[in-house]
Write a structure and sequence with these properties.
Elements: E1 8-9, H1 17-28, H2 33-39, H3 59-74, E2 80-84, E3 90-93, E4 97-101, E5 108-109, E6 119-127, E7 132-138, E8 142-149, E9 152-156, E10 161-164, E11 168-173, E12 178-183, E13 191-198, E14 208-213, H4 216-219, E15 224-228, E16 236-237, E17 242-249, E18 254-258, E19 264-276, E20 279-281, E21 286-290, E22 294-310
Parallel strand pairs: 15-16
Antiparallel strand pairs: 1-5, 2-21, 3-4, 4-6, 6-13, 7-12, 8-11, 8-13, 9-10, 9-12, 11-14, 15-17, 17-22, 18-22, 19-20, 19-21, 19-22
């Protein structure tokens, strides 16, 4: 029986590590998805169906496994809730930043967690007072910033200058290229945020920025749409077939969300404890859902959640 391979940090001797590092460097330098793919052919490890855990299999055999599983899933042969435990995430720590990576990011690399569907990055960041991310560039990425506590000062090459606070959602479409900086404007309070990257439906989009407030009463006890392709219900617009919901749920609350045929979901627990279709999740945990007709959420301890409905 093959053994499971746990989370890893980049090491030049590891399979795929050097190639993955090149791809990350390409994205960080601002090259687009098509350019990235042209420079680096697909790797032979399971990324097509990214929630599938393939242990000890490499090469063509590993590449074929997620495709076979996806076909069976579409035919209704499988249902799955796959938990991503908070304490198994990658971590980056500096004198001013503590960041936990749900998916492979920067120097953290785990072939079993390279994203889910169009969702590429969920980073939970804690930024020290009067510190932050200096000016850097992005291209061909939909970036959503969600503030849990504190505030974040944003400035970009489009001329935007704003402060994001709890209850607000920021969307930046990097498109053909955007440079921006993000700083904690407080001299004594840390900032707690989630930064989310979603692959856009096409490259070379016009860069754009949007920020909207969603009062607590609109999110209390229910799933409130906060980001979508069509900007429905007053949500911010995302250039991808994704619907992002936010909810504040008291202990004992129950909410459900139907999944259309062929749709998938990712649930990220920001705070609290709950069960998703019987799977227990705590703060910082995530869960991938595929082949489920309905997502049933039962709250044990007051919770704040983000739910991604994905193609």
């Amino acid at each position: 029986m093959s053994k499971s391979v746990g989370p890893r940090v980049l090491n030049s001797r590891m399979p795929y590590a050097r190639e993955w590092s090149k791809r990350l460097s390409c994205f960080r330098a601002g090259c687009g998805l098509a350019e990235n793919r042209a420079k680096y052919p697909p790797l032979k490890f399971p990324i097509e169906y990214r929630s599938l855990r393939v242990s000890g299999r490499t090469g063509d055999r590993a590449a074929a496994a997620p495709r076979r599983f996806a076909r069976e899933l579409a035919q209704g042969a499988h249902t799955m809730i796959k938990r991503r435990p908070a304490d198994e995430r990658g971590m980056t720590q500096t004198h001013w930043l503590e960041s936990y990576h749900t998916f492979s990011f920067n120097r953290y690399y785990d072939p079993q967690h390279t994203g889910f569907r169009q969702l590429l990055v969920i980073n939970e960041d804690f930024v020290a007072p009067s510190q932050g991310f200096g000016t850097h560039s992005h291209r061909d990425m939909e970036i959503i910033t969600y503030i849990v506590s504190g505030a974040l000062q944003h400035r970009d090459s489009m001329g935007t200058s704003s402060v994001i606070r709890p209850g607000e959602v920021q969307r930046m479409s990097a498109g053909t290229g955007v440079s921006h900086s993000e700083f904690n404007p407080s001299s004594d309070e840390p900032t707690h945020l989630l930064q989310i990257w979603i692959q856009p439906e096409r490259r070379d989009l016009t860069p754009g920025y949007e920020q909207r407030a969603f009062p607590a009463e609109e999110r209390q006890g229910k799933l409130r749409l906060v980001a979508s392709r069509d900007g429905g219900e007053g949500s911010v617009t995302v250039q991808q077939d994704v619907r992002l919901y936010d909810a504040l749920l008291d202990a004992g609350a129950e909410v459900s969300h139907p999944l259309d045929a062929g749709r998938h979901a990712w649930l990220q627990v920001v705070k609290g404890t709950l069960t998703l279709n019987g799977t227990r999740l705590g703060a910082g945990d995530g869960a991938a859902a595929s082949g489920e007709e309905t997502l049933n959420i039962s709250v044990a301890e007051a919770a704040e959640i983000l739910l991604f409905d994905l193609a």
